[in-house]
Structure formats: structure tokens, C-alpha cells
Design brief:
This protein has 16 helices and no strands. The protein is an all-alpha fold and 465 residues long. The protein has one domain: Amino acid/polyamine transporter I (Up-down Bundle), CATH 1.20.1740.10. The radius of gyration is 21 Å and the shape is globular.
Length: 465
């Protein structure tokens, strides 16, 4: 997108501020591999058992299909609108609006999910060390306000903090996993390779949970203005995050299941699997470090979600889908201050409301993640549909892109159906209906704005950046 004088539009953001590693850190932090290994892998194990590693292999393949479609756009277009901009530029205007509202819900719900997870580990640590239970809502307020302040303060500072937090957390987790393998009587777990006890009917629900572990891998696309050489660094970051996360999750799932052999409590039942894994590895002191690392990693993920959600809000404000004041940026800092504050307010409001209703931090992580999956799947599906149209030449659709797009769309639809069918309780069963109502309201807002402007939103003149 360009401004009226022909220069690339900056939207008031700080252009060319982030290098390749800092851009990759945005996607890695939003994915939060340490969070997945600590909280999600045990949930997948409860369904898939010895087939957990296989479920993550299948999930990695599905995510790589989406990543390939996203990278097609990222090589040709860069803006803070992320997948919303990709869909809006290639599909009918209403599809762009659906992608925008879906992506906004996805980042806010994911941020609330990991804020609840960070609170969960904070409570565990305080109870273990001080033998008191901290007040939940103030803890949530500190987490959301801290993430919002850093996201507002400076994008380079924010990316740097996310980079070092994830690097330290991953290094600590990798060290414990390596020690587990070294101390294990046998590196080869035949029960896992033979998929002993795995039932075909449990693969679908387990796959849905495994894919949730990856969501956010595309969030580097929200840094289209702030990344240096965005048409090169962003598609690489998206693909690298998907591949590295997949390899890490498969290693973690295999090693965690192996590490719990002979332990009275199951991987799916322990309240702090990382602590028990450290004990099994012979380094119990690292157990506390891993719990602290998991908590800080979830804070980093909340920071990444706030950063991404604010930039989606900024672009949506430019298109008239949300109030115009949300596109204002700080002149001194080059960050969308109001949009960032609003995103973090939504995150805190959702978690605080659940806390008042007696929902635990672990349950917040589960419920927020379930809602986030709905939003991400909407955006992923629309980008998959749009990919062939965005890359066509001389009016012809590229055959390879069209085939990959069709396969990706089928996978996403299958995952969505499995997600609905795997809802095991009344609360989870209501989430898809709540999301559909939310999306319907967003579409109504779009048509109202279009009637007011009397022209398609994405065709409106772009103000100067």
C-alpha cells in the first residue's frame, strides 16, 4: 500500500526498525513453544497417548500448508493488516471484513488464553514458595498492563524482549529434554513407534488441540511496515516458525511421553509436568526455572498478541471497520497507542470476567485457546481461498497454487468440523455459536460502514502514512 506521494505507507509506524531475528521473534513468541510443551502437549497426550508425536507430525503438515499460502502473499505485499489485508486485496470486500474480525478475535482470545496461563504458573510458584494464594485479578492486571506498556513503549524493545525470553526458555527446555534422553534406559520407545493404544477416533480431537499449539505463527505478517526488507524477511519468518515449531513440538511430545514412563501420575494429570520432567532428568533445580520460564514465555506470547492485535485494529480503523481514532499512533514512539491499550483491555476484561466466575488459569488457557482457534481458522481459510487469485498471471490461475490452496482449505474445513464435534462439554460446545454470532455482528458493521461511505472499504483512498 502506498501513500499519495508514491512512497510506501507507514501508517504512522516506525518503518524498517526490525531485523530478521526480531521479525521471527514475533511469530515464535505468538506461538510460544514453551507454553505448548508445558500445557498443550499433556492435553494432546490425554487423547492420543503414544500417538502424540504422530498427531504433531500431522499438525505440522497442516500448518505448513497454511504457511505456504501465507508466504505467497507476504512475498508480494507488506502492511500492518496481516492476513486481513491479504484477503481484502484479493477477495470480495465482505471476505476481507470477515478475515479482519476473525483475526482480531484470534489475537485477543489467544492473548487472554496465555495471560490466564501465565497467571496459572504465577499462582503455582507463589503457593510453592510462599505458601499463600495471590489475588488472581491483580495478577492478571499486571500481566496485561505490562504487555501493553512494552508493546506501546517501542516495537524494537518489544521484539528484543520477546526474542531473549523465548531463546532462554527454549534453551532451558531443550537442556532438560536432552538430559532426559541421556538418562533414559533406551532412546527408542517402541510403544510410541508402534502407536500402542492409539484409537483412530481420538486422532481428530487431538489434532485440533495440536494445531492450537501453532496458532500465531503467521503474526510476523503484522510487521509489514516495521520489518526491514519485509517482502523477504516476513515470508521466511512465517515458514521458519512453522517448521521449527513443528520439529520442537514433535521432539517435546516424544521425550515427555518417554520421560513419564514408570511414573505413578500420568502426563495428562500432573499440575506441573515440566517440574516432574526436570526431576526425572536429574536436575530438579531446573524444574523451578522451567516453571518460571513457562510463565515468562506466556507473558511474551501475550505481548506478541497485543502487538499483532493493535496493528490489525489500526488497519481496520483505516478501512472504517472500527472507530477512526484507533489508527492514531504515537509520534515519538511510532506505535498504535490507543489500539494497543484497547487490545490489552479486552484481554484483561475477558480473563477478569472468567476469574470472577471461578474459572482457573488453566481453564482460561483452554477456553481462550478454543475461541482463538475459530478466529485463526477463519483467516487461514480465506487466505487459502485468496492465494490463487493473488498470484494469477494474465488472468490465469497458477495450477500448483490452486492445488495447494484447495488441499489447505479442505484441511482447514476438516479441522473446523473436528473442533465442533470434539466439544466434550456444554461450555466448549457453545464457543462456535458465540463466534458465529460475533462474526455476524462484524459483517453487519461492515455493511453499515459501506452504506455510509457509499463505496467498497478497501477501495477508499489511502491516507498518507
Amino acid at each position: 500500500m502506498r501513500s499519495e506521494d508514491g512512497r510506501p505507507a507507514t501508517y504512522g509506524l516506525r518503518a524498517d526498525a526490525l531485523g530478521p531475528l526480531e521479525t521471527l521473534a514475533q511469530s515464535v513468541s505468538a506461538t510460544s513453544p514453551c507454553t505448548g510443551s508445558a500445557l498443550t502437549i499433556p492435553l494432546v497426550f490425554a487423547l492420543a497417548g503414544n500417538g502424540t508425536w504422530l498427531v504433531y507430525l500431522l499438525a505440522t503438515g497442516a500448518v505448513l500448508l497454511v504457511a505456504w499460502c501465507v508466504s505467497r502473499f507476504a512475498r508480494a505485499s507488506a502492511s500492518p493488516g496481516s492476513l486481513y489485508s491479504y484477503a481484502a486485496d484479493s477477495l470480495p470486500p465482505v471476505c476481507g471484513a470477515m478475515a479482519g474480525w476473525g483475526l482480531l478475535m484470534a489475537y485477543v482470545a489467544a492473548g487472554a488464553s496465555v495471560a490466564g496461563g501465565a497467571m496459572y504458573y504465577c499462582v503455582v510458584l507463589v503457593q510453592n514458595w510462599l505458601h499463600v494464594s495471590p489475588a488472581v485479578i491483580p495478577v492478571l492486571a499486571v500481566i496485561c498492563a505490562g504487555a501493553g506498556y512494552i508493546a506501546y513503549r517501542d516495537i524494537k524493545l518489544s521484539a528484543g524482549i520477546m526474542l531473549w525470553i523465548e531463546f532462554a526458555s527454549l534453551l532451558l527446555m531443550a537442556a532438560v529434554l536432552a538430559l532426559l534422553l541421556v538418562r533414559s534406559p533406551a532412546y527408542i520407545d517402541l510403544d510410541q513407534f508402534r502407536l500402542r493404544g492409539l484409537h483412530a477416533g481420538s486422532v481428530g480431537p487431538a489434532l485440533v488441540l495440536a494445531i492450537f499449539t501453532f496458532v500465531g505463527f503467521e503474526s510476523a505478517t503484522t510487521l509489514g511496515v516495521e520489518a526491514r526488507q519485509p517482502l523477504r524477511t516476513i515470508p521466511r519468518a512465517v515458514l521458519q516458525c512453522a517448521m521449527l515449531s513443528g520439529a520442537f513440538f514433535m521432539l517435546c511430545s516424544y521425550t515427555e511421553v518417554l520421560g513419564f514412563r514408570g511414573v505413578p501420575s500420568s502426563l495428562s494429570e500432573t499440575s506441573s509436568p515440566v517440574h516432574l520432567l526436570a526431576q526425572r532428568a536429574g536436575v530438579p533445580a531446573l524444574g523451578v526455572g522451567m516453571e518460571v520460564g513457562a510463565m515468562i514465555s506466556m507473558f511474551s506470547c501475550a505481548l506478541a498478541c497485543a502487538t499483532a492485535a493493535a496493528r490489525v485494529l489500526l488497519r481496520m480503523a483505516r478501512e472504517g471497520l472500527v472507530p477512526g481514532f484507533l489508527q492514531r499512533t504515537s509520534t515519538a514512539r511510532g506505535t498504535p497507542a490507543i489500539a494497543t491499550a484497547l487490545a490489552c483491555t479486552f484481554m484483561f476484561g475477558a480473563t477478569a470476567l472468567m476469574a470472577l466466575r471461578g474459572v482457573t488459569g488453566y481453564e482460561m488457557y483452554d477456553l481462550g485457546g478454543s475461541m482463538a482457534v475459530c478466529g485463526f481458522l477463519t483467516a487461514y481459510a480465506l487466505v487459502a481461498v485468496a492465494a490463487p487469485f493473488a498470484t494469477r498471471t494474465s488472468g490465469r490461475l497458477p495450477v500448483r497454487t490452486a492445488i495447494v490452496s484447495a488441499v489447505t482449505l479442505l484441511v482447514i474445513v476438516a479441522v473446523a468440523v473436528l473442533d465442533i464435534q470434539s466439544s466434550g462439554d456444554a461450555v466448549h460446545a457453545r464457543i462456535p455459536y458465540f463466534y458465529v454470532a460475533y462474526l455476524g455482528l462484524g459483517i453487519a458493521v461492515y455493511f453499515t460502514a459501506r452504506l455510509r461511505q457509499r463505496m467498497p472499504l478497501e477501495r477508499a483512498a489511502e491516507p498518507e502514512g
